[in-house]
Amino acid sequence: MRKPVIAGNWKLYKTKDEALALIEELAPLVAGVDNVEVVVAPVFTVLPSLPAALAGTSISLAAQDVFWEEEGAFTGEVSPRMLLDAGASHVIIGHSERRQYFGETDATVNKKIKAALKGALVPIFCIGETLEAREAGDTFKVLERQVQGGLEGLTETQFAPVIIAYEPVWAIGTGKVATDEQAQEAHAFVRGVVAKMFGQTAADKVRILYGGSVKPDNVKGLMSCADIDGALVGGASLKGASFASIVRFGE
Asked: So where does substrate get bound (predicted)?
């Protein structure tokens, strides 16, 4: 059994005080949930403020990005060691917004994943096709390229901690959601690519999350699919009640 992961990507929202207020609201709502791994990903400036607030909860802390060097003349970047120092245990890598607005490529994603793993961070590795790619029938081609490019050079042992998040770009923040069938088809395909790269055992163990306008009213259908192991949640993670409802999808 793969333990589900529900991760909240707060994107460019929440100051320190706002983040602390959200954790104060969220923590009691997910208390006692031990069959789901819960992760929140605030902006860099908020990270160091949250470990104390999360102490005694089962909520893990993620960063939204990372750089591949430990230190150096890289203005504006943050290294894996610095994220660990700030209290993070996970990091989102290759989100479509990073790819779209900030020039992220499969090659830079690969370097970041390797750096995160070396730095003892759990990568949440994002993949997903654009609307143009889906309409052109290229969904599987794009996903295969992204998975192979992002994970190139890893051994099965190195790959083991990685979490994959499939987010069709056309469903992020648009209110559109892939149907359960579309999402399951993509997840099963990605698991097949992992099997070819690292073997069936690794493919059976890897957790693949769905992202893209996940809300309390659609999470149950998505989570009923055989190859969907959780969700990467955007807007609905910014309010404690809605995020807690997603975390408690099985109740």
From this structure: 9-11, 173, 213, 234-235
Question: What is the pLDDT of the chain when averaged over all its residues?
Answer: 96
pLDDT of 84-130, one tens digit each? 999 999 999 999 999 999 999 999 999 999 999 999 999 999 999 99
Please indicate if the annotation marks 76 as binding a ligand. Answer: no
On the question of pLDDT at 180 being above 90, the answer is yes
d(CA 78, CA 103): 17
Q: Which residue in 37, 95, 104, 187 is the catalytic one?
A: 95
Distances (CA, A) of 173 to 12, 77, 162, 189, 223: 13, 26, 25, 24, 19
* DSSP code per residue over 18-53: HHHHHHHHHHHHHTT--SSEEEEE--GGGGGGSHHH
Closest CA to 243 of 224, 209, 216: 216
230 in a known ligand binding site: no
Task: Determine if residue 87 is labeled as part of a ligand binding site.
Answer: no
Question: pLDDT digits over 103-112, tens only?
Answer: 999 999 999 9
167 catalytic? Reply is yes
User: How far apart, in whole angstroms, are the C-alpha atoms of residue 30 and residue 57?
Assistant: 9
Report the predicted TM-score, pTM, of the whole model to 2 decimal places. 0.97
- Identify the CA nearest to 146 among candidates 94, 186, 191, 98: 94
Residue partners of 60: CB distance under 8 A and separation at least 6:
37, 38, 39, 40, 54, 89, 90
